[in-house]
Specification:
Blueprint lengths: L1 H11 L15 E7 L2 H11 L5 E4 L5 E7 L1 H13 L3 E6 L2 H14 L12 H12 L5 E8 L5 E7 L8 E7 L6 H16 L5 H6 E6 L4 H9 L52 H14 L4 E9 L3 E4 L12 H19 L4 E4 H4 L7 H7 L4 E7 L14 H22 L3
């Protein structure tokens, strides 16, 4: 009864998520471990609270990270204590990290580089000028966001596409995961400025890269709410905006770890592909498949240093080729670790984290992509979503090494 009372008190607390600029002074990130079914169920109940932000979702016998506002900290710790759960404060003040990040943002160059996190406008200008001028690139606008921003996809090809397989990569589907977009654009820059360096891969594959899949949410996370995760669509009958685009794909839509509440960060949307951003990705991939075989799909996220494989919609379910894909995943994270010592873990997504319905990776696998991976980039929680810009290049270099390894394995396995 005590736990239910305290949980009710937390649920009664509300924070304005949609009004003005949201500040995070005094917000903490608590790391808590569930070692019993009862403890795990408490965390699952807390996930349903629209005002709690799980940076890492609940998993039995592992730690979850939860961002908590100052008014909730004492109450939440009381729950953990009553349940006998191990917990600690991982980030003492999220606002401090955001303030440090703003200093970096104000000092950045407006010219595209990988020592800063750039605005959507700066990214778009780079894509439509420098990237578009590369001899191996074709820039396409595959749709418009809710607020009218262009959704750009770049095809990187050395020609003879009819004889090549396709590799697709998207980034920044979740708005606050800035490192993912920075890594996506880094990989795009590598391929378009150094095609001779990657001639072996480009002889076998055409790359299709969407370096900014959620531009509205990304810009909102820069200007109003650093921890904004969703799109920015209007939800009928609610003042809460957007949905989680990685719950909006058609495969197991409305399944595990999704919400029907428009105010939840896990809101699945009113229907599959309701968002112009996810519909654009769907149409782009289907358009590619009409011309070429899609061999691999990578989606970049943060954080956790995980290389997640399908199926991810629930625990204990695996595609027929899982053993092969797991071997490749292990080789890939070994190659990644050799770059700068960053340790990753690979495996079936729901087994490693939690089940996710309506996710892009499972949808791509269901549509015929041979190799699919959700890559949760640096770090393991020291900075969380606030990864310093000084780590962009190292994160990008190791990630690109891991992706190249998968390309090499696909090439060898299919005699390309």
């Amino acid at each position: 009864m005590k736990v239910l009372f305290v949980l009710g008190a937390i649920l009664a607390l509300a924070a304005a998520k949609e009004i003005g600029i949201r500040h995070y002074d005094g917000y903490q990130v608590l790391s808590v471990k569930a070692t019993t079914k009862e403890q795990f169920n408490v965390l699952k109940d807390l996930v349903l609270n629209d005002d709690l932000d799980f940076w890492k979702g609940p998993k039995l016998n592992d730690f979850s990270d939860i961002m908590v506002n100052p008014e909730q900290v004492g109450l939440l710790k009381t729950i953990f204590q009553l349940q006998g759960m191990e917990f600690s404060t991982k980030i003492a003040d999220v606002g401090v990290l955001i303030a440090e990040e703003k200093v970096e943002m104000n000092a950045r160059s407006t010219r595209m580089d990988w020592t800063s996190y750039h605005t959507y406008a700066e990214l778009e200008a780079w894509i439509t000028s420098e990237v578009a001028s590369s001899s191996v690139s074709t820039v396409m606008t595959i749709g418009q966001s809710t607020e009218g921003r262009g959704l750009h996809m770049v095809k990187v090809s050395t020609g003879n596409s009819a004889n090549k397989k396709a590799i697709f990569l998207d980034a920044n589907l979740h708005a606050r995961e800035w490192i993912s977009g920075a890594v996506g654009s880094y990989i795009l820059n590598e391929l378009t400025t150094k095609p001779d360096t990657y001639s072996e891969l480009l002889d076998a594959f055409d790359f299709y890269i969407v370096p900014m899949a959620n531009p509205d949410g990304y810009e909102f996370s820069r200007t109003n709410d650093r921890m904004w995760r969703k799109t920015r669509s209007i939800n009928s009958g609610s003042t809460c905006r957007g949905c989680d685009p990685n719950r909006n794909f058609a495969f197991h839509f409305g399944g595990e770890s999704t919400s029907s509440s428009p105010c939840s960060d896990l809101f699945k949307g009113p229907s599959a592909f309701s968002e112009p951003e996810t519909a654009a990705l769907r149409d782009a991939i289907k358009g590619i498949q009409a011309e070429q075989e899609l061999f691999a799909y990578f989606t970049l996220h943060s954080y956790g240093q995980l290389w997640l494989l399908s199926w991810g919609y629930t625990q204990g379910v695996y595609p027929p080729d899982y053993a092969e894909l797991l071997d490749w995943g292990r080789e890939s994270i070994a190659a990644l670790e050799a770059v700068s010592g960053t340790s990753y873990v690979t495996g079936q997504g729901a087994d490693m984290l939690y089940g996710v319905g309506g996710a892009s990776d499972d949808w791509a696998k269901s549509e015929g992509a041979k190799y699919v991976a959700t890559i949760e980039l640096r770090d393991e929680g020291r900075y969380g979503f606030e990864l310093p810009a000084s780590q962009i290049i190292a994160t990008a270099q190791e990630t690109w090494t891991g992706i190249q390894l998968i390309g090499q394995r696909l090439k060898k396995a299919h005699n390309l």
